Amino acid sequence: MRCQTVNTRLQRNNPHDPNAHLLLVDDDRLVLTTLCRELQHFGYAVSPAESLQDALDLLKSGLRPDLAILDMRMDDGDGLELAQYLHAFDNLPFIMLSAYSDTATVRKAANIGSLAYMVKPINASQLIPTVESALRRARDIRVLKDQATQLQRVLNTDRAIDVGVGITMAQNRLGRLAALEVLRQSARTQRRKLSNLAHDLIQAIETIRQR
After folding, report:
1. Single pTM value for the model
2. Cα 31-8-127 angle, rounded to 5 deg
3. CA geometry: angle at 107 spanning 104 and 111, to 5°?
């Protein structure tokens, strides 16, 4: 009997990450079933796929796994192609499985962002620690990216306010502090964020310049 997808909302016995959902892709049904059952035994919810197309169908149906475990070479394509799709599609983290351990293949997987590379045959004592480590790394990377996004948002906000102050200085022949106070007063009067007001001011000037 093949391994069935497990609903993450019903799976709560994993002491390490009770909400982790894994996409497992391998065209060898025995390997797929064995690894799937081992992962489920340790509390992970698993969506199995026997082909690249099955995996794509799951993703297109709305599946967003916390980690994908991909066979390197399958009958209907290259696991690296699916890995590249995962990276471009939604930055989904993945690890690669392969019967090959040559340097070129390992480097190829690393270059597209694989968090780990495992050589078959694989047992639970190898797989589970690797999955746990990959999930931790994926979370760390996600936190760093979120922090970078927030920092960029702050920088963009500060830049917009600086430009808005400069425009107000030029339009009203004011010093910097006076121009900033004019913008603040206008934002308070309109009950708007200073950054939004500054952005609209910049857009208005750019529109005028384009005429």
Report:
1. 0.67
2. 35
3. 135
CB-CB contact of 22 with 131 (8 Å): yes
Q: Provide the residue type at 75 as one letter.
A: D
User: Helix (H, G, I), strand (E, B), or coil: what is residue 118?
Assistant: strand
What does R_g of the chain's alpha carbons equal in angstroms? 25
User: The dihedral of CA 123, 124, 125, 128: what is its sign?
Assistant: positive
Same domain, residue pair 156 and 116: no
Chain segment 155-183, per-residue pLDDT in tens: 667 788 888 888 888 888 888 888 888 88
> Domain end: 106, 122, 138, which one?
122
Whether 17 and 100 map to the same domain: the answer is: yes
Q: Contact at 8 Å (CB) between 24 and 35?
A: yes
Same domain, 108 and 189: no
Where helices occur in the chain by DSSP H, the ranges are 29-41, 52-60, 79-90, 103-111, 124-172, 176-190, 194-210
